[in-house]
Design a protein that fits this description.
By secondary structure, the protein is α/β, with parallel strands linked by helices. The chain has one domain: 4-Layer Sandwich (Purple Acid Phosphatase, chain A, domain 2), CATH 3.60.21.10. It contains 7 helices and 12 strands. Strands 3-2-1-11-12 form a 5-stranded mixed β-sheet, with helices on one face. The protein has a 5-stranded mixed β-sheet with strand order 4-5-8-10-9, with helices on one face. The chain is globular and about 45 Å long. The mean pLDDT is 95.
Length: 281
């Protein structure tokens, strides 16, 4: 069995299928880890969602911010769509409810002790151990399962921006979902700059990428993440960033997790976007 991690798909189904052909992926034998953001911005969000769902247990995907955005828009009867969203096909699909239910049941964090590797869409605050991340992610999943529409309606926002074990209720849930699906950099006081989207060299003075913060408690476990297309492929500090901007006309990247092997890439579709890639905050 081969275990492969693949970066953000964002509706780029054709590139994804070609990449799977290149790595000889067999769903009866192999396993895929997907960094989330299955949908939005790209040319075929509906097809991508259907394809990944059909892979069954051979595909493990965590929720990304674009996936949560889809769930929030669907729960609000289509309200909240943004310029550049490519979600209408899903919202009108005859199998919409089955797809959305499946998506809502995806975790926000995955850990494999045998591989000593974890999967998250964006990042982990430095105060959290792997066990903490699993527990906090489970709290959000429980809130979605219990009353998804209520959670989605309160999900958006950048506060609180600093972890405290005393956080409760929606503040605790919002901080958790923001870190797991939107985090990129933090300042010296441990505050997350959720609005920052550019390359680390353009980050405000005194800030660091989340994975470079000294004393990060998850540093002994390899963490696979996506979300940061302006960072691109990154390997260091015990993490691997795999969002190589497929939806922006760059490429989709696969990394084998169970053994050392070369990275495999597949060009993305031509992009009509200009400027730095936006983020559906």
């Amino acid at each position: 069995m081969a275990v492969w991690a693949v970066g953000d798909l964002q509706g780029c189904l054709e590139s994804f299928q070609r990449l799977l052909d290149r790595i000889n992926f067999d769903p009866q034998r192999d396993q895929l880890w997907l960094t989330g953001d299955l949908v939005n911005r790209g040319p075929d969000s509906l097809g991508t969602l259907r394809f990944v769902r059909a892979l069954g247990d051979s595909a493990i995907t965590v929720l990304g911010n674009h996936d949560l955005h889809l769930l929030a828009v669907a729960a609000a009867d289509g309200q909240g769509l943004r310029p550049g969203d490519t979600l209408e096909g899903i919202l009108r699909a005859p199998d919409r409810e089955a797809l959305l239910q499946w998506l809502s049941e995806r975790p926000l964090f995955h850990h494999d002790p045998a591989l000593r590797t974890s999967l998250v869409h964006a990042g982990l605050p430095p105060e959290w151990s792997i066990a903490d991340a699993r527990a906090r992610a489970a709290e959000v999943s429980a809130a979605i399962a219990n009353d998804g529409p209520r959670f989605y309606a309160q999900m958006y926002g950048n506060d609180p921006d600093r972890w405290s074990p005393n956080l409760r209720g929606i503040n605790r849930l919002r901080f958790t979902v923001n870190c797991l699906t939107r985090l990129r950099v933090m300042d010296a006081n441990g505050r997350a700059l959720f609005k920052f989207k550019l390359h680390p060299r353009l980050a405000p003075a005194g800030t660091l990428p989340w994975f470079a913060v000294p004393g990060r408690r998850s540093r002994r476990t390899r963490v696979i993440f996506g979300h940061w297309s302006t960072l691109g492929l990154y390997q260091g500090h015990g993490v691997v960033g795999l969002d190589t901007g497929c939806v922006w006309g760059r490429e989709l990247t696969a990394l084998r997790l169970d053994q050392t092997a070369p990275l495999v890439t597949q060009p993305g579709p031509p992009s009509q976007a200009s400027g730095p890639p936006p983020d559906a905050d």
